[in-house]
Amino acid sequence: MASSVPLLFSSFIFLITSTFAQTPDFPLSVFLQVTKDVSTHQYLTHLNMGTPPVPLKLLVDLGAPFLWINCDQSGLESSSHHPIKCSSLQCSIAKVNCCATPAGHDTKNCLLDPENTITGVVTSGELAEDTIAVELADWHRIGYPSVATIHHFLFSCAPTQLLRGLASGVKGILGLAKTRIALPSQLANTFDFQKKFAICLSSSDGAIFAGGGPYVSLSGTDISRTLVYTPFVSNQDHRLEEYFINVKSIRIKGKRLSFNSSLLSVDQQGRGGTKISTTVPYTTFESTIYETFTRAYIMAASSMNMTRVAPVAPFGVCFNSKTIDNTLVGAAVPVIDLVLQSEMVRWKIYGRNSMVMVSDEVMCLGFLDGGLSPKTSIVIGGYQLEDNLLEFDLRTSMLGFSSSLLMRQTSCSDFKLTSSRFSESI
Asked: In 3D, which of 276, 253, 268, 197 has the Cα closest to residue 34?
């Protein structure tokens, strides 16, 4: 009986109508434009949901297990919106373990636990289904998207209080985690795509792609050909729905840092390790790692004649920008290497992603102290992800990463669908 669930899931949950015809010669993927809110440092996208469709501005969250929206204030009056009843196939897929009877009804509906990952607040919300519309990017004819409508898309409604701390106009959170009802998995089942998605964040316009590459910028550069791969970390005691990678060591200007390396592993309680986040603005280190990191960075900076100045909150180490040259990949500062499964596999962080301009004369090291006992020792934040393309392969449990696209004279803002039908509502 259990083996029939995926087939039922594909045939019942995801009915699709679209304006395209897919052929092997024209690979397609779903495209979502991503913008950065300057005041909150949050990365935002949108979906068109409901019948009739309503554009919804959403926070992009790699670690969130599903899409949730505030149904009361989103403007949705959708004829295709339906709550999901208990003991249904959809409840099983969503791994719901709680149900409730709404006022005035005699049947129980499934409940999820939507979380605002900015504030840490968790509430209860109904599991529901509705129609969404997405753009399909044709990589052989970039700039000419088509639109597909997906019926019975699973998500959760959440109360208005959960919107606190989110950027102005945001109506919910778009989850991209390793769950069956996160956006990537639902799209993969819908379109029979590869179970892959990629993010390319920017200080201006970035992108999310679901379905695999190639990832061709407007300049014609295919980034998928140059990706380096590392496995995601799994833990037999704790199912890691977020994206953890195996950072073995850190080097600054080639010199390996010395600190308690056990902090880099995920223990039996699910603590420690390194994860990737789109909701943390700047990379955070556990306090002892941060102390070692900043001390080594200051020494390396001194050897390059960089002049320190008083720190500017929230940063702990700052420099006079007049003493620092500029390069293709940002400020000419010590290169940071996150060494992964071997010394040959390194995520390189150049000046564009390590230094933050806080004034005309001051730039600061864009890494923060995460405290003495954080749940995760290293959280790679959004600023360090900008102008890096990351591909998340859910089938093989591998991360493909480009390091800075500026090295290839392109950037994440070069991924655009110029004739987007949804451009006015982003």
From this structure: 197
> Which residue matches tokens 């110029």?
418
User: Which residues, listed in sequence order, are joined to residue 227 by a DSSP beta bridge?
Assistant: none
- Which pair of tokens denotes residue 50? 């409901």
Q: Which two tokens stand for residue 151?
A: 């019926």
For residue 196, give both structure tokens.
């892959």
| Residues ≥6 apart with Cβ < 8 Å to 295 | none
What confidence tens digit (pLDDT) does each residue in 249-286 have?
999 999 999 999 999 999 888 899 999 999 999 999 99
In whole angstroms, what is the distance from residue 328 CA to residue 408 CA? 9
Cα–Cα distance between 218 and 197 in angstroms, integer? 19
CB 40 within 8 A of CB 119: no
Question: Residue 362 pairs with which residues in a beta bridge?
Answer: 320
Identify the band that residue 159 occupies on the pLDDT scale cut at 50, 70 and 90: very high
Q: Report the distance separating Cα 182 and Cα 195, nearest Å.
A: 12
Per-residue pLDDT, 419: 40
220 pLDDT tier (thresholds 50, 70, 90):
confident
Please tell me the distance from the alpha carbon of residue 219 to that of residue 260, in angstroms, as a whole number. Answer: 44
Residue 337, CA distances (Å) to 239, 332, 403 in order: 28, 15, 10
SS3 for 32? Answer: strand
**Cβ atoms of residues 130 and 50 within 8 Å:** yes
For residue 138, the model assigns a pLDDT of 63
Residue 423: the pLDDT is 34
Full set of structural domains in the chain with CATH: 2-214+415-425 (2.40.70.10), 224-409 (2.40.70.10)
With a CB cutoff of 8 Å and minimum separation 6, the contacts of 409 are 219, 221, 328
Q: Which two tokens stand for residue 75?
A: 């403007």
Q: Give Cα separations from 244 to 8, 271, 352, 399 (angstroms).
A: 31, 11, 23, 10
CA–CA distances in Å: residue 88 to residues 78, 127, 156, 201, 404: 22, 11, 15, 37, 45
